[in-house]
Specification:
The structure is a single chain. The protein is of the alpha/beta class and 363 residues long. The protein has two domains: 180 residues, Rossmann fold (3-Layer(aba) Sandwich); 165 residues, Rossmann fold. Helices cover 50% and strands 14% of the residues. The strands form two sheets. Strands 2-1-3-4-5-6 form a six-stranded parallel sheet, sandwiched between helices. α12 links the parallel β10 and β11. α14 crosses α15. The longest helix is centred in the N-terminal third of the chain and has 17 residues. 43% of the residues are buried. The mean pLDDT is 88.
Length: 363
Amino acid sequence: MKIIIAYASAGAGHVKAAEALYNYFKEENPYLELILVDVLKQTNKVFRTSYAEGYDFLISHAQWLWRTAYWVTSLKRFQPLIQGVHSISERLYVKKFARFLVKEQPDVVICTHFLPAEITSYLKKKKKIKPRLVTVITDFGLHPFWLHRRTNIYSVASERSKEKLLEARIPKGKIRVTGIPVDPKFLRDFDKLELCEKFGIDGRRFTVLVATGSFGIGPIEPIVRSLHSDVQMLVVCAKNKKLFARLKRKRYQGVKVFGFIDNIEELMAVSDIIITKPGGLSISELLVRELVPIFISVIPGQETENVKALEEYGVGINLDDPQDIRKAVLDYKRHPHKMERAKNIIRQIKKPDAAREIYRVIC
């Protein structure tokens, strides 16, 4: 069986989900013919740059414009026009990926981004390929761009996500509530005392992890300033080198500062609470680790929907004022029963076996 797992490198979540599936499928069945492909590398430079860097620019510098675009493209009355223009423009610039699919003639195409799903659906319509199309929606909400008539299976994050698809008149038989696939490293059992020794922290202290994505955006410095006297903190600055340098110079007691890392799962394993952005993958990872979240710097659109989904379950708080965040953290610290209640909810809604469930659907 030939399986193509396609993503678009516009936002880390789509990439991580695709890689998690690729690694699981490869480990589970070495006889499968697996191809992992970034659709943006199959386009011209202008489209690739504008698609990936344009998204990064909007969420970092012009969220009002992103909010408007997300809202307009979600409106039902505009869908025929928007979908038409969207489909034509994508097919115009993604011809190389289309030729790749036609050449490979896969049995299955798994998409963790709507761009390759759109191209695959179009080619199926034209009878140029005939794979099963599996779309893995990497957020807890639903944008119309994910929906294509020739999709065979929609893999979704939660029962709420399923309800959104049913409201969009997607047949029940096409929907699987699998969760969003995460890297197996998040499923590991860790020795907490050993990790605390590794990071030079006190395993008995209440620990807060601050990790807000690859750009290190949000009111991180004020949060650290307001909390460092009351709790132990692990702060991930990622690619924000200026933030990293400023925090290192401050030398706050009980605060460990990190740059770009690849072992966030270890920091999660020694933490009680995470202050983070509500990306779909980030939420899935923290749920698997049973980590109580406080969300900050929410991107209008998909992240707003992610927060709503978690709030409906009764877990996750959306705050941006550092003093409000401090109050929320200390409330959890002083009232362990609230922490345990939140963790009980997380245990009910987490889906650690998403990759395995998707594998079972396909194989």
